[in-house]
Every structure is written in structure tokens, then in C-alpha cells.
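TEACHING EXERCISE
Course module: macromolecular assemblies
Task: Read the component lines below, then compare them to the predicted structure of the full complex.
Student: A.B.
Group: 4
Components provided:
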Amino acid sequence: MFTLRKHWYPYISPFDPCPPMRVKTYVTPPNLYVGFQPPGLPQFPPYEALHKGTLWPIWYDPYRGKDEGREADEQTSS
Amino acid sequence: MSKQVPERYYDMLHELQAIDFVLVELNLYLDTHPQDAQALEQFNTYAQHRQTLRNQFEQEFGPLMHFGHSYSAYPWQWMETPWPWQV
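Instructor-supplied answer key:
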């Protein structure tokens, strides 16, 4: 299984004027990891699919906000 | 107070909207996966379900679409309220 959020750890210099950002996160879309969609993927029920905007959970990738996305992402895809 | 539509109106519209969305997704999926029999079967069952839903709705609340895509009871119902933006 793949994760959508990637982290990297910038170099922190002792002369940095501001408090350092130790970990930086960026989000990648699910279609990078799936390519041509295989048949028979699990689906959302109709109402949920309408609400979430996609029929297949694999493509569900909402903006969960700057910070709380991190743990939410760990749970779903790890 | 003008004619108010019952709660059922909104529930049926909501279900119709959900079924339509699933049909749109399956349609787009089938465009690139014509051989996927399971998805095609699901598409057809949902299309049939939508047909019955639409007929049910139109029996009760009048035409959903105009220009011949829906029947109308007597007298002509198309110009009756509520219009889509009033719903």
C-alpha cells in the first residue's frame, strides 16, 4: 500500500534566524501509484460516493488541512 | 402559502443524484475498460434502478426533464413550481 504524504527533513543551520522547520511534508496524488486502474477495486456506497466525490476509495484524497492530515494519512494508508 | 413539496421529494432527489453520480463514474470507467464485465453489469443494474426511480418520481411530482424526455400529466406540468433553483 502507498502513502500520499511524503516528508523530508531540511538542513537546519545554527545561524538560522527563525525557529527551524524540522520536517516538511508534501502531498502526492494517488494516481501516481496506481497507473491504469485495475478492475474490481472496492467501491463506496452511492450516497458516500456522492459525498466524497469519487466511487473508489483509492482515489479519495481530500485536503485534510495543514497539520491534521499527517496522522489521518498515516492511519489510512499505512 | 403555496404548494409545499413533501420530504419524500428531497429524499428521492437525493437518491437520484447519488445513483446518477455512480452512473457517471462507471460510465467514465467503462470508457477505458470496455471489457470489464462486472462493472458493465453494475452499470446496467444502476441504470435500470435509475429508470424505476425516475418513473416513480415523475408519477408523483411531475416531469424531471422537458422537450420530450419526460411525460407530463394533464394539465401541462412543466411550468409548475418548484423549479430546480427553488427546490
